[in-house]
Amino acid sequence: MAGAGAAYQHIVWEKVAADTPFEGLERRMLVGDSLMVCHLRFAPGVVTAAHTHPHEQMTLVQRGRVRFYIGDEECVAGPGEALHFPPNVRHG
Hints:
This protein has strands spanning about 20, 25-30, 35-40, 55-60, 65-70, 75, 80-85. The protein is mostly beta strands. A 5-stranded mixed sheet has the order 1-2-3-4-7, with no helix packed on it. It has a two-stranded antiparallel sheet with strand order 5-6.
């Protein structure tokens, strides 16, 4: 089987240390060589600054609604929806 013996990680989200980069955002992050996965909890009305990063990002919305700005476009995603951000694409 291809990749047998390759390093892998088994992650339990509750055991990943959470940080609070600013009031209203709790964040748990896993960062690989080219993919970043974050578990985020936003307080209602919280706004994050637009930013870029070298990692590909997948965002899955579990509850509530979130408004994203991707480049010059706006997108509102709700429960059961996902967004994919390629590397270095400005979003917030």
